[in-house]
Every structure is written in structure tokens, then in C-alpha cells.
Amino acid sequence: MSETENLLQGVIDIHIHTNPDIRTRRLSDLQLATEARRVGARAIVIKSHLVTTMDRATIAREAVPGIDVFGGIVLNAQVGGLNAVAVDTAIKMGAKLVWLPTSFSSNERRRQGKSDGVETVVDGQVVPALVQILKLIAQSDIALATGHLTPAETLIVVEEARKQGVAKIVVNHPEWATVDMSIDDQKRLAQFDVYFERCYARNVGGKYEKNFERNLQAMEALGFESTIVATDGGQVENPLWSDALAEYIGYLLNAGVPKTAVDLMTKQNPARVLGLSA
User: Fold this and answer.
1) How far is it, in rounded angstroms, from Cα 239 to Cα 142?
2) DSSP per position, 198-248
3) Number of neighbours of residue 62 by Cβ within 10 angstroms
4) d(Cα 96, Cα 82) in Å, to the nearest integer?
């Protein structure tokens, strides 16, 4: 067994980008599923900023037996933004996560000098369209992921999500440059019993830099029990998904993180988010 296979036995990664896409990715859905099975992973989640992926995941799961493949829907403009009909349909088709707007969030678009982003919070309140979606997520007991909102928007949405009965909440890559959550921001969110997804790298000025040291500091500050290790992988600029995740896990182990904690962050916590046995 190779070092990568040894490190990735039974892992679950809830954030990987694949082809087809308008931006070239390293692997297609089927290629990723094949690679995940090869290295002994338990499950993967494919994500697209543009289209739903639970339907693509079903095809990949059937085409590559032996690996669980899941998907969901990102509420960007390409699916109609805060579109409750699209969310309801995605859930009925097996979506495991509903991501709030990412590349088309009002936060991202404002940073680009645009005024056409999908608004989730206005005047300190969650918009009514999102409240309806939160109710659908709660009823189906799948996970809400917070996308690329500002820290202030994320706090408001998470509080409302809990009020509406959403049980599983993932705060997406708080270290991402446009999300940019401080440790204090994260501590405010932690009171709502959320998971913090901490990813392999972040894009800074068009170049990717590894998040390992930053993520470890956050893990130590917030706790391993609230952490999910993921890659947000698939970019041609970054290593092959399996190599990236193995490198990340290897760093944590070499830094002295107990294997039980690594297993919690790479296996048990993501399993709970996906509704799998932990």
C-alpha cells in the first residue's frame, strides 16, 4: 500500500471540483470517483458553482461501484439564486448539501465592483426567500453550507438557520480570502454548534497558497471536534486531489495532531454531515 493510500483509507472529502465546468478541472466526475476508490476513500462530494451535482454524483456512483459519491446545489445566479423550487427538486434527487451563494454572492460581486450578486441578508435580516429554503433544508435533514458570505452575513444566516431547525451547518473555508473570518468571528459562530470546513489551499491574488499552518492554528483555537478537513480541490494549479489530501493529513500528523483527532476531522465529522454512520 502506498503512503497516499495508507493516509486516505476511509476518508471523506465534502468539497471537490470536477469537470465538466467552464473552468478546466484536473479530473472528471468519473475520474475522481475512480481515484477515490483506488486510494480507499469512503466518500466524496463533488461541487460546482454553476450547476447541480447530485445528479452527476448518482451517475458516478453507478459507474464506479465501491465509492460513495454525493452532490448538491449552490445557490448562485446560474440556478436562479435563492430558488426554493430548485432546492426542493435537488433535495428530492438526493442532494446532501445546499451551499449558499459562492462566486455570485453579493460579497464576491461587490468585491468585483458589481451590484448584481445574490443577496442573503438585507438590513441585518435574512431575506424571506432564504428563510423558505432553510425550512426545506431543515425538513429534509441535509446540510447547509455557508458559501462565500461575509462573516457578519454568515452569523446572521446561521442564527436564522438554527431558528428554522437546520441541524447540520458547515461554515465553508473561513480562511478563504473573500470570506476572511477571524478567530473571533469563528468563536462567535461556534456557539451555534457548526462545523468549520478547513481546506487545503486558498487563492490569493490569482495564486494558491497552502493553508496548513493557518488551519492548524484555527483547529487548536476552535477544537478538532468542530473541524472538517477538506481540500476544495480539483484546480489544475493544485496537486491531484488525492495527493493534496494526503499531504494535508501528513502535515497534521507530523505536527503532532493525534490520529484520533485526524480521523474525527476526516471521517466521523464529514460522515455526520452526509448522514452516514460515523
Assistant:
1) 30
2) E-SEEEETTEEEE-HHHHHHHHHHH-GGGEEE---B-BTTS--HHHHHHHH
3) 10
4) 17
DSSP notation for 68-85: EEE-EEE-SGGGTSS-HH
Which residue from 247, 242, 173, 245 is spatially nearest to 214, judged by alpha carbons?
173
CA neighbor of 175 nearest in space, from 193, 153, 194, 151: 151
User: What tens digit of pLDDT does each residue of 223-243 get?
Assistant: 999 999 999 999 999 999 999
Find out whether 242 and 266 touch, Cβ atoms under 8 Å: no
Q: How many C-beta neighbours within 10 Å does residue 70 have?
A: 26
Distances (CA, A) of 180 to 108, 173, 202, 234: 12, 9, 11, 22
The three cell numbers locating residue 97: 448539501
CB contact set of 117 (below 8 Å; sequence gap of 6+)? 101, 104, 105, 106, 107, 108, 109, 110
Helix (H) or strand (E) holding 44: strand 43-47
| Residue ranges per structural domain of the chain | 3-273
From CA 76, how far away is CA 73, in angstroms rounded? 9
Q: What is the pTM of this model?
A: 0.97
CATH architecture of 3-273: Alpha-Beta Barrel (3.20)
Cis peptide before 270 (omega within 30 of 0): no
The residue count for the chain: 278
Backbone φ and ψ for 229, nearest 5 degrees, come out as -85, 125
Taking only the tens place, the pLDDT of each residue in 20-36 is: 999 999 999 999 999 99
